[in-house]
Amino acid sequence: MISTLTNHAINDGLPATVEEALQLNSLYSTAELCKAADAIRKKWCGNKIHTCSIVNARSGRCSENCKWCAQSGCHKTGIQEYERISKEEALKSYAVNKSRGASCFSMVTSGRKVLSKDIEYFCGIYKEDPLPPEYCGEE
Predict the structure, then answer these.
(1) CA distances from 75 to 57, 83, 111, 121 (A)
(2) Model-level pTM?
(3) 64-92 burial string, b = 16+ CB within 10 Å, else e?
(4) Which pLDDT score, from 0 to 100, does residue 63 have?
(5) Which of 4, 59, 83, 139 is the most buried (most CB within 10 A)?
(6) Rg of the chain over CA atoms, in angstroms?
């Protein structure tokens, strides 16, 4: 089964179904699964990896209660809080991470969503130094 599914993935680009994946997990060792996954990775990705760098575009002041997050409103972590990253700081972070080989650049914010008033501001940062389409894996 593992050979058949590996060949389908390599030759036809067909993924395993959820049921097949569960079956593989129960029938084969981790080493066998890793060997098959590595063959598929080599076919479709070679030895390259896609990396995405992120910058914290809004820090702290979050009303959510995520137990693991230092920005959660229920924790007193002493992190630096700010409403929005400066355009200069965001572009500096983008340039540094791009020079280090990052494949994509994203800004993340605390909270459930980006406020409407901030959408234009954050979009303006991306428009300042737009990434070429191939930089983020787009065709």
Answers:
(1) 19, 18, 14, 28
(2) 0.59
(3) eeeeeeebbeebeeeeeeeebbeeeebbe
(4) 79
(5) 59
(6) 21
